[in-house]
Amino acid sequence: MGYFDNKTAVVTGASMGIGLATAKQLASEGAHVFITGRRKDELEKAAAEIGHATAVVGDVSVSADVDRLYEHVSQRGQGLDILFANAGINHLASLEDLTEEDHDRIFDINVKGTFLTVKKSLPFLNEGAAVILAASTSAESGAPSFGAYGASKAAVRAYARTWANELSGRGIRVNVVSPGPVNTPLWDDVFGERAEEMKAAIASGLPAQRVGEPEDVAAAVTFLASPLSSFVYGANFYIDGGMNQV
Q1: DSSP states of 179-205
Q2: Domain map (residue ranges) of the chain
Q3: Which of 6, 93, 123, 161 is 20 to 30 A removed from 142 (C-alpha atoms)?
Q4: How far from each other are the two terminal CA atoms of the chain, in whole angstroms?
Q5: 149 is catalytic
Q6: pLDDT tens digits for 28-40?
Q7: This prediction's pTM
């Protein structure tokens, strides 16, 4: 028996990294997980790894794609118990170098995508469901070149506070996870050949003396989705090895 036997979950951005690790954890606790992402081959491979998963290809910033995701959820006929709005992108650029196109794409995926994912879930969320949003410690750190990304994740945090109030009447809990440096493929996308060097440099300054793993975040999401956190509303869980807290 698992925490989520006969439960239905949705995880966005689940083809790799934190999303994939979380989908695996939820499935291991008994949930059937609907996963979505933009890359068909990677998403279908992820579904095979997860087991008890349905892959629905789509872009969370496109309204019709999100509708299609929830059509699949609806066809299962059991509503929705867990939603992890995880899909997000980053692009490192200073204020001087950030283009309008890159700024808009970050906000389209990270902010609009989160809004659409949660708003369109409302007809399907069961009473007592758990909604978890993916923010970031970058929302508060002020790190150079993380301006647009950090601002987008601050918006996600603000959404969570309001939605926790608005949905509490249905017994729906809304909370946030804010990862710090976590070992995902995005390091290679952002830092290229310097990825390992950057991980080592950051880890040396953390109380944890290591960067995080996707499973560290998945464990926190699983807790927030479970009955163990039934008294937790609107919280922001920092999973950062102490980077921003110590």
Answers
A1: E-SB-STHHHHHHGGGHHHHHHHHHHT
A2: 8-239
A3: 161
A4: 38
A5: yes
A6: 999 999 999 999 9
A7: 0.95
